[in-house]
Write a structure and sequence with these properties.
With 194 residues, this protein is α/β, with parallel strands linked by helices. The chain has a single domain (6-190), classed as 3-Layer(aba) Sandwich (Rossmann fold), CATH 3.40.50.300. Helices cover 33% and strands 22% of the residues. It has helices spanning 37-45, 86-103, 122-133, 150-164, 181-190, and strands spanning 6-12, 26-31, 62-67, 71-75, 107-115, 138-143, 169-172. It has a seven-stranded mixed β-sheet, sandwiched between helices. Strand 5, helix 3 (122-133) and strand 6 (138-143) form a beta-alpha-beta unit. The chain is globular and about 45 Å long. Its cofactor is Mg(2+). Necessary for normal cell division and for the maintenance of normal septation. Mg(2+) binds at residues 38, 59.
């Protein structure tokens, strides 16, 4: 897959903000704060479209990136730990819930980024169960895999495959080595990203 053009077309800050026109589907990137969503988007597009930070909570809005004038990459705010106010976290939750309820019909695939160094966190489990209830297809992207020794890596991949691998794709991924990028592109193509 070749990404020729990328354009930030809409940023959603409030649940009553208007969504952009629909295109040929949306590929959603969601995960805990500081799990690597913005870095992954930058790698996939070959551009620095998403701001990155060592501090959790940099993405505070829903960002719609038009890809090849055909479909969207949708970058959601992180959930879980972030040094932001309770009110700000509540706002993020509201816009995320609103997004999924209003745009589920146009979502092709949700990439759920999970820190592959750790077992499933409660917030991740809640999100995955919610996506199943909404009958949305998702793939689990295990981030930061380069930080694990081979034995730990094999153990964590087995752990996630035992939990979700029968029905969902598990992708070990590293921003450093670029492991998993080809699989993500492949899924985008399979699910209709042209």
């Amino acid at each position: 897959m070749k990404i020729k053009s990328v354009e930030l077309v809409k940023t959603i800050y409030k649940s009553n903000d208007k969504y952009p026109e629909s295109l040929n589907g949306e590929f959603v990137f969601v995960g805990r704060s500081n799990v690597g969503k913005s870095t992954l988007l930058n790698i996939l597009t070959g551009r620095n479209i998403a701001k990155t930070s060592k501090k959790p909570g940099k993405t505070a809005s829903i960002n719609f990136y038009k890809i090849n004038n055909s479909f969207y990459f949708v970058d959601l705010p992180g959930y879980g730990y972030a040094k932001v106010s309770v009110e700000e976290r509540a706002r993020w939750r509201k816009i995320i819930e609103n997004y999924f309820s209003k745009r589920a019909w146009n979502i092709k695939l949700v990439f759920v980024l999970i820190d592959g160094r750790h077992e499933l966190q409660k917030n991740d489990e809640i999100l995955l169960e919610w996506l199943k209830e909404l009958e949305l297809d998702f793939a689990i992207v295990m981030t930061k895999m380069d930080k694990l020794k081979n034995s730990e890596r094999a153990k964590m991949i087995r752990y996630y495959k035992d939990l979700y691998g029968e029905n969902y794709t598990i992708i070990p991924y590293s921003a450093i080595t670029r492991e998993g990028i080809d699989k993500i592109y492949e899924l985008i193509e399979i699910f209709g990203g042209v």
